[in-house]
Design a protein that fits this description.
Layout: H1 4-37, H2 43-53, H3 56-80
Helix pairs in contact: 1-2, 1-3
């Protein structure tokens, strides 16, 4: 049987992941706006676009991580019932 400490830590893990996901979403939204404001024919714009479009690996991590966090959350809810 899992301990109360493990359940508490698991809740913190879920919360931290949720915070990371939300923060990354805000980052992408803001960077899209900022990069879009640049003159697209400059070297700065070409380099800055990577900071948005080069983040696909993070997006895939978030998709996979959402499944893991959902599983953990379901386990916690099952134990509470």
């Amino acid at each position: 049987m899992p301990s109360i400490i493990d359940d508490t830590i698991a809740r913190h893990i879920v919360a931290e992941f949720d915070t990371f996901r939300d923060t990354f979403g805000r980052y992408i939204d803001r960077m899209n706006v900022l990069v879009g404001l640049l003159d697209e024919n400059t070297e700065v714009a070409a380099r800055a676009r990577y900071l948005v479009y080069g983040s696909d690996h993070v997006k895939w991590f978030l998709i996979s991580g959402n499944h893991v966090v959902s599983d953990i959350d379901a386990m916690l809810k099952e134990r509470e019932a």
